[in-house]
Specification:
The protein is α+β, with helices and mostly antiparallel strands and about 230 residues long. Helix content is about 35%, strand content about 10%. It contains 9 helices and 7 strands, in the order E-E-E-H-H-E-E-E-E-H-H-H-H-H-H-H. Strands 3-5-6 form a 3-stranded antiparallel beta sheet. A two-stranded antiparallel ribbon has the order 1-2. A two-stranded antiparallel sheet has the order 4-7. Helix 2 packs antiparallel against helix 4. It is globular. The protein starts with 8 loop residues before the first strand and ends with a helix. GO terms for molecular function: ATP binding; protein serine/threonine kinase activity; protein tyrosine kinase activity. InterPro entries: Kinase-like_dom_sf, MAPK, Prot_kinase_dom, Tyr_kinase_AS, Tyr_kinase_cat_dom.
Length: about 230
């Protein structure tokens, strides 16, 4: 892949002798830090910073998805930055093409950035899982704290529903498992929080985008094309 907002491979180093071919070293372009370290630092961030980071993430993700690739592990530590605030999506170790049929049940996405359909063990999922992760990252940029720091799957779902509200039956159509639907219905019911109160420093446009990313039903989540 060749895009301004996707980390580029500079070289591949192989062992000099074929019989010693146990490892391959991939050389990437040098970046200064990542978004995780920036958010944990004392570096002040303006709204312009936040908008520029989000723009670059969505721009890079639109390109990745256009190649029919799911990143599947978007999180702040995989968003690399340089001193010019240029951002590149990195770590494609869990990425898979959408045409592959044997990857759906593999490990995917660090729990805090995992979409509801993954938490509920859906056997099929789409690029919407990456959009959910970007929403989690956007919320983290605004507050400088993880949006859904769940301790386990149950706690993770509770934190999600406490913010975006408990899903109604029409929002559970993507769940093919009756057991999964029954489980979601058995959870405590929460109303949707007012995003303006939760994210007081966020611009109106960013808040609207966040609400359209953090949608329980993946089929109703905004797409990368529209978000970018």
């Amino acid at each position: 892949m060749n895009h301004e907002n996707v980390i580029s491979i500079k070289d591949i180093i192989r062992p000099p002798r074929r019989e010693n071919f146990n490892d391959v070293y991939i050389v990437y372009e040098l970046m200064d830090t990542d978004l995780h370290h920036l958010l944990r630092s004392n570096q002040p961030l303006t709204d312009d910073h936040c908008q520029y980071f989000l723009y670059q993430v969505l721009r890079g993700l639109k390109y990745v998805h256009s190649a029919k690739v799911l990143h599947r592990d978007l999180r702040p530590s995989n968003l690399l930055l340089n001193a010019k605030c240029e951002l590149k999506i990195g770590d494609f170790g869990l990425a898979r093409t959408t045409t592959e049929t044997d990857f759906m049940m593999e490990y995917v996405v660090t729990r805090w950035y995992r979409a509801p359909e993954l938490l509920l063990n859906c056997s099929e999922y789409t690029a919407a899982i990456d959009i959910w992760s970007v929403g989690c990252i956007l919320g983290e940029i605004a507050t400088r704290e993880p949006l859904f720091p769940g301790k386990d799957y149950v706690h993770q779902l509770r934190l999600i529903t406490e913010l975006i509200g408990s899903p109604d039956d029409t929002s559970l159509g993507f769940l093919r498992s009756d057991n999964a639907r029954r489980y979601v219905r058995s959870l405590p019911q929460y109303p949707k929080q007012h995003f303006g109160s939760r994210f007081p420093s966020m611009s109106t446009g960013a808040m609207d985008l966040l609400e359209r990313m953090l949608v329980f039903d993946p089929s109703k989540r905004i797409t990368g094309n529209l978000a970018a």
